[in-house]
């Protein structure tokens, strides 16, 4: 269940109450007249089934509450109520399968922004990769995968493509197109200093190592990227964020970027090129699979919403 709170201009409150009271997926309706100060208006609250959230929010936006008032959603961890159970039962579809599109846009939109925090995490991840490469430490490489923040913009690109939000696509693509080169340049300086001080040795790249999978491109590179992208978007849209950790340590985006820098500094150009190709395959594969999953979920949700009436009658 989700808790919905709206700030409604007085002249629209009756229509808001009508929308919520007639919807099968809404319950626990509360009206606080004149309670809102900024913006001024009435506060209307309700608990809604996750499956109904998208339809209800669309209705509230049609009333203009996103411009003249306000709409907020919060996750309810526990709801002990027969009315809440009935609302979830009557709502179309299943809660685990429901996508709250405005919530998805908000999450991916926030994570797609190019800012100091994003650049810092991406840079630290690439530098961790550099250390992992020269020490042959697969554990350090896994740590770099977890630290890397690149899935946010990749998911945002997929969401923007499916929902035709080209502003989101441009912003997320810019974060990736600027973020990776900046992180790689800083890692380059880090690697040069390491080589000059004798910490990074060309011999560290020679021979067989546990981290050689980073630059070795093959069919499994694309397969893993596709599976990770699909799992990541499924996790993101079903609010099961714990699964995202598995996605982070499946794809070799950040490790490929870091390995390419180390290989270039140590004049291992074959491995550098292989790492760059690996990076591109992972980026494209994740976005493609995430977009396909999102399209399938959108189609399935639309079908489910037409199978049951949304209003009480």
Automatic annotation (TrEMBL):
<protein>
    <submittedName>
        <fullName>Hydrophobic protein (TIGR00271 family)</fullName>
    </submittedName>
</protein>
<feature type="transmembrane region" description="Helical">
    <location>
        <begin position="243"/>
        <end position="267"/>
    </location>
</feature>
<keyword id="KW-0472">Membrane</keyword>
<keyword id="KW-0812">Transmembrane</keyword>
<dbReference type="InterPro" id="IPR005240">
    <property type="entry name" value="DUF389"/>
</dbReference>
<feature type="transmembrane region" description="Helical">
    <location>
        <begin position="273"/>
        <end position="296"/>
    </location>
</feature>
<keyword id="KW-1133">Transmembrane helix</keyword>
<dbReference type="Pfam" id="PF04087">
    <property type="entry name" value="DUF389"/>
</dbReference>
<feature type="transmembrane region" description="Helical">
    <location>
        <begin position="213"/>
        <end position="236"/>
    </location>
</feature>
<feature type="transmembrane region" description="Helical">
    <location>
        <begin position="141"/>
        <end position="162"/>
    </location>
</feature>
<feature type="transmembrane region" description="Helical">
    <location>
        <begin position="114"/>
        <end position="135"/>
    </location>
</feature>
<feature type="transmembrane region" description="Helical">
    <location>
        <begin position="174"/>
        <end position="193"/>
    </location>
</feature>
């Amino acid at each position: 269940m989700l808790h919905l709170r709206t700030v409604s201009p007085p002249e629209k409150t009756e229509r808001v109450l009508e929308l919520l009271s007639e919807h099968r997926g809404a319950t626990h309706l509360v009206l606080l007249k004149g309670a809102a100060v900024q913006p001024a208006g009435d506060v209307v609250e309700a608990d809604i089934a996750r499956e109904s959230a998208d339809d209800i929010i669309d209705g509230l936006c049609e009333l203009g509450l996103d411009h003249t008032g306000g709409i907020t959603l919060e996750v309810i961890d526990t709801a002990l109520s027969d009315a809440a159970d009935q609302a979830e039962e009557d709502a179309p579809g299943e809660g685990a399968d429901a996508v709250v599109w405005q919530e998805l846009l908000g999450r991916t939109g926030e994570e797609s922004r190019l800012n100091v925090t994003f650049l810092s995490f991406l840079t630290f991840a690439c530098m961790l990769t550099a250390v992992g490469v020269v020490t042959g430490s697969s554990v350090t490489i896994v740590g770099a995968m977890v630290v890397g923040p690149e899935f946010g913009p990749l998911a945002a690109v997929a969401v923007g493509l499916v929902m035709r939000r080209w502003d989101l696509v441009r912003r997320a693509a810019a974060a990736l197109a600027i973020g990776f080169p900046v992180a790689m340049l800083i890692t380059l300086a880090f690697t040069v200093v390491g080589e000059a001080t004798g910490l990074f040795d060309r011999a560290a790249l020679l021979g067989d190592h546990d981290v050689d999978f980073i630059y070795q491109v093959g069919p499994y590179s694309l397969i893993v990227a596709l599976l990770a992208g699909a799992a990541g978007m499924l996790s993101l849209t079903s609010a099961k964020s714990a699964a995202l950790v598995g996605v982070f340590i499946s794809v070799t985006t950040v490790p490929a970027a870091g390995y390419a820098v180390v290989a270039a500094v140590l004049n291992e150009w074959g491995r550098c090129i292989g790492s760059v190709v690996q990076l591109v395959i992972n980026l494209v594969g994740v976005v493609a699979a995430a977009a396909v999953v999102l399209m399938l979920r959108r189609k399935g949700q639309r079908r489910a919403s037409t199978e049951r009436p949304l209003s009480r009658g």
